[in-house]
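step 4 of 6: structure.
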Amino acid sequence: MTDILWVAGILSLIFPGMILWRLPEVRRLDLQARLAIALAGGIVIVTATLYLYNFIHLPWTRFTVGVPLILISVGAGTLARTGGLRARLPTNTILILLFVALTIYGVATARETCGDLIYFWGPKGQRFHYAGSIDTGFLGFRDYYLMHSDYPPLVPLLYAWGSLVAHRFSWWGPLLLMPILLLATAFAFRGLARNGWYAALLTAILGYGFAIGMVGGAADPVLLFFEVIAIAALTFDFEILAAVALAAVAMTKVEGAVFVAIAAFAYLITRRRIAKAILIPLPAAIVLGTWIAFAWRNHLIDSYGLARGSIHLHLLGSVLGDTFRQASYKIAYVPWLATLVPLAMHRNLRRAWLPLIVAAGTLLSTLFYYLHAASPTWWIEASAQRVLLTPLACLVVASASAGGPLHKSGGDR
Amino acid sequence: MGRGEKAIVTGATLILLLAFIGRLYTRGGPYFERPLTIVDHVAPDKHDTRDALVLLPKVRPLLPRGAHVTCFEPGERDTMPDFFAAVGQLPQQTVVSPDSELPQYVIAIRQPFTHTAYRVIAEFPEGRLYCRD
């Protein structure tokens, strides 16, 4: 029962997240895409609420957190308007559902669990729930230094919300969240890109990548959910949605900050709108700034301090070789070929430049991170298949956009 | 979307579908039984934390709230997996590292803990709970 309540608590975030349906461009999307985007919005709203309460010392209770969520849901005022459901079930949707079903099987039979759920994502979410705040004593405890005290708090806050609803932490809940996020990522992307086939490919790459990279319960499915929405939104001109998603990206994992910077740079280069290139990543910069300041004030700086470390350029060859091997995903580079070959077939790459720059930038930043490790082989083996999903997802967006409609009203393909 | 492009995308998706099924299959059976822990089938071999994840919920009711406790496999060099599993499984206690000063309670995974200052207060197939006299 705890597991069901925990997951239901996360799913209920769709209601306050419907506030995003007030954006005209989101209102035009099909229902599945709007529901996916509402889930993203709800996650942002609840984690922002818990984060804010932490600073103003308001307790986290079902009442104090639930009432604002209900008020926002009522304010969203879009509950009755649920038109636009795709009644037919095209082949690409069946493929999406197959990957989601396999992922449900994978997590329900404990085949995709990430060790980091046991080692820190779960303990942090659980402890924040019991403490009713971001527990700096727990994060800063000397024996827990491997828990990455300054990792951004969105995922533990989300887990704390699920625990608040269920009255305790559920170890199966974060696992069951993964297929939900996979489906939401697919539907959000399909709606924004208006392309069901590339949404199926994205689901295939992420579903398989989640399984081989073992990310169940970790932050990666959440990160990729927001990254895909952010890049698709930027590529297809949903700027406000992109700003919201980028803020969530920055607060989900440390590498999210780099992603935001690269995305803003790519937007500036490809769209040449300086004001928007500053405004779109601004919420991410502000909220991340508050987190780093909070971590610094409480002596929690760990990962954000690694930027001061030295680079080991003599390891470049081995880093490239190890990363290249992991990038095959033990399936002969099919995920890369499936995105790059169709891209090469298109002549109009104008719209694809933005996701291509982000793909290249995130790939280079990953190599840059690895070059900061004195012995990076283990690190690459442990993480490359997970972190390379970000440039892969960007390449899917690029492929879909290269042959896609140039206007938001363009038809579905 | 052109026919060639759709063929590539569909073909790759189907290849990934087969690879996904293969990946789930090679993590070992049983395939349709409810697992006891969240790590039961992450690999054909037993996960580092599996015994701890089975043992800790049994030990939890025996520990006072706020008690200082540690968890490790005696004789094992890498004590981190069992220790961090305990941090998550014992949220009402303070779990300290086995590398620091030993606390009042020790949870020994699989192997017996032979420290003379401690006595066994509960025994399970996956390990034992000790308390300092």
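step 5 of 6: annotate
 - Residues 406-413 of chain A have pLDDT under 50 and may be disordered.
 - Chain A has one domain: 2-79+89-402.
step 6 of 6: archive
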